[in-house]
From TrEMBL:
<protein>
    <submittedName>
        <fullName>Uncharacterized protein</fullName>
    </submittedName>
</protein>
């Protein structure tokens, strides 16, 4: 869980640094935006990780039901 948050925070800060470099302004201009984008990046990567885990669990459950023959096959 912490790995995804660290990756997201890093991604958010790098997006802001890249944006500032494209505009040719100081890289650390408006540092509160770096903090804000780090939080948004950490939150979004965490949500993606949770969503992926839920989808994998749901897929394994459906696969198990299909192998046991509990699921009705519609042709």
């Amino acid at each position: 869980m912490a790995g995804e948050m660290l990756m997201g925070a890093t991604f958010g800060v790098l997006v802001k640094l890249y944006s500032n470099s494209l505009r040719r302004v100081s890289l650390l201009r408006q540092p509160w935006e770096h903090f804000l984008l780090a939080g948004i990046g950490a939150y979004s990567f965490q949500c993606i990780a949770v969503w992926t885990e839920q989808n994998i669990a749901r897929y394994e459950e459906k696969l198990k039901e299909f192998k046991e023959g509990k699921q009705v096959k519609y042709y």
